[in-house]
Amino acid sequence: MATLKITQTKSVISEKQYQRDTLRSLGLKRIGQTVEREDNAQNRGYVATVAHLVKVEEVDA
């Protein structure tokens, strides 16, 4: 199954609270941090919400 490699590239300062909460739900706390999440509809929605703050790569596992 494919996974998403998600890296936070920008700060959450001056972003809306729901966007901060979304990043926290993905497990991201600081710039440059990378997490791997399952590629499913829920995580794709999270990424779409904060697309301007993160970089996403698809990884075939």
TrEMBL record:
Pfam families from the UniProt entry: Ribosomal_L30 (PF00327)
CDD domains (UniProt xref): Ribosomal_L30
GO CC list: cytosolic large ribosomal subunit
Large ribosomal subunit protein uL30-like ferredoxin-like fold domain residues: 4-54
Keywords: Ribonucleoprotein, Ribosomal protein
Gene Ontology molecular function: any one: structural constituent of ribosome
Gene Ontology BP annotations: translation
Similarity section: Belongs to the universal ribosomal protein uL30 family.
HAMAP family: Ribosomal_uL30_B
Assembly description: Part of the 50S ribosomal subunit.
Protein name: Large ribosomal subunit protein uL30
Biological source species: Neobacillus citreus
